[in-house]
Design goal:
This protein has 382 residues and is an alpha+beta fold. The chain has 10 helices and 17 strands. Helices cover 38% and strands 25% of the residues.
Length: 382
């Protein structure tokens, strides 16, 4: 696990750029580098792979192309120790203009919104590191004062990155990049014990599970999130003396465990073997009765064939929720945190209602925006 995290950081910490046919193209100019060799490399989870190279002329012009990846992937342009990393998420043409030897920071990029986002994130990280170093050199501050100031800076940075980048589009290459930014050897988002950071990793992992099923980076994110959540449960259980940590196991799906309307804790992963409609709902919504009626029709039609509905309510009024769900035939659970629910963050639910489909092997298959016909989508999984 640590091995993969370190590799992921290495693949993105230097990155200062991201980015219809089957190939993508990276072209542009790197001036003041005549006779230098420009390398085009793939930055994979397991290391670097050289794809091509070119000796630059007086004008610094270059052009490389490669097969379009099935999911967002990272590449880089490198001269000696100076590198510009580029994330490709489609078959577009990305144009880079820079001058050596300041190419890693003094470049311009066109052709990809992701490029602009990652450049902005990288500049924010550089500024954060500069301010952190200034704190370390400030002899007027005690160690405790410097530490408190650094924590406030980190919290503000993470809040902005989470709000303005990751939760806006967790499936984006820029969101993946943001997760692995670091100050020195210190990961800004720490998935090994910080509850809110684990939620951020889980939100991106869930999006990649949905939009890029089977991708190596998506599976790595999923494993990191699951491991972080497992460690968190062990720490909390051990501290409370409520559970034997050796009995905490990890499933393949990012789990939800909440009490149902009869007081029994129900786990999403206990439904392995069934096709599951995971539904996030607010019974206080004006259109709730119509939505419940449509869900009843689906349930009645397909339950005998293996469909289950796991419905997560975020209603603030528990008594009202119990009244509304008393006669529903499916699993009805409620998160007492309401619209501040951790589950909403993990599954990147930004509006209600929202739903997902999960296959019989506990794999997240799709979310509402990917489903044109819910009835047909359920039939295909059954």
């Amino acid at each position: 696990m640590r091995h993969h995290i370190i590799l992921a950081v290495a693949a993105t910490a230097m990155a200062l750029a991201s980015c219809s046919e089957d190939k993508f193209r990276i072209e542009g100019t790197i001036t003041e580098a005549e006779d230098s060799v420009l390398y085009f490399e793939h930055v994979g989870i397991d290391g670097l792979e050289r794809l091509d190279s070119a000796r630059l002329g007086a004008d610094g012009g270059f052009s490389f192309s490669a097969e379009r990846p099935a999911a967002p992937e990272f590449y880089r342009l490198r001269i000696a120790g100076q590198a510009i990393n580029i994330a490709i998420d489609s078959t577009e043409t990305v144009t880079i203009r820079a001058a050596y030897p300041s190419m890693a920071t003094g470049y311009e990029v066109e052709g990809s919104g992701e490029c602009a986002k990652i450049k902005q994130l990288a500049q924010m990280q550089i500024d954060l590191q500069r301010r952190a170093m200034a704190l370390d050199r400030n002899t007027a501050l005690t160690a405790e004062e410097a530490r408190d100031s650094l924590q406030r800076m980190l919290a503000a940075h993470k809040q902005r990155v989470t709000r303005d980048f990751i939760f806006k589009d967790p499936k984006a290459a820029s969101s993946y990049f943001a997760l692995f930014q670091a100050i020195g050897d210190y990961l800004i988002f720490n998935p090994q014990g910080n509850d809110s950071d684990i939620q951020v990793f889980a939100a991106v992992a869930t999006a990649w599970d949905t939009f890029y099923p089977g991708s190596l980076r998506g599976e790595n994110l999923h494993n990191i999130a699951i491991e972080g959540m497992r460690n968190e449960r062990i720490i909390k259980a051990d501290a409370a003396g409520q559970l034997d940590p050796s009995k905490v196991v990890t499933a393949g799906l990012i789990d939800i465990q909440l009490p149902d309307n009869k007081g029994r804790t129900r786990s999403l992963t206990e439904l392995k073997g069934k096709v599951v409609l995971l539904d996030f709902h607010l019974f206080a919504m004006e259109n709730s009765p119509q939505r419940i009626l449509s869900l009843r029709e689906l349930y009645n039609k397909y339950h005998a064939q293996g469909l289950e509905i796991y419905q997560v309510s975020v209603d603030a009024d528990e008594h009202f929720w119990k009244q509304q769900t008393a006669h529903l035939p499916w699993i009805s659970v409620r998160d007492a945190a309401g619209t501040g629910s951790r589950q909403l963050a993990i599954y990147n639910v930004t509006q209600l209602p929202e739903f997902f489909l999960i296959d019989r092997e506990n794999n997240l298959v799709s979310r509402s925006v990917q489903i044109a016909d819910l009835d047909e989508a359920i039939q295909a999984l059954l």
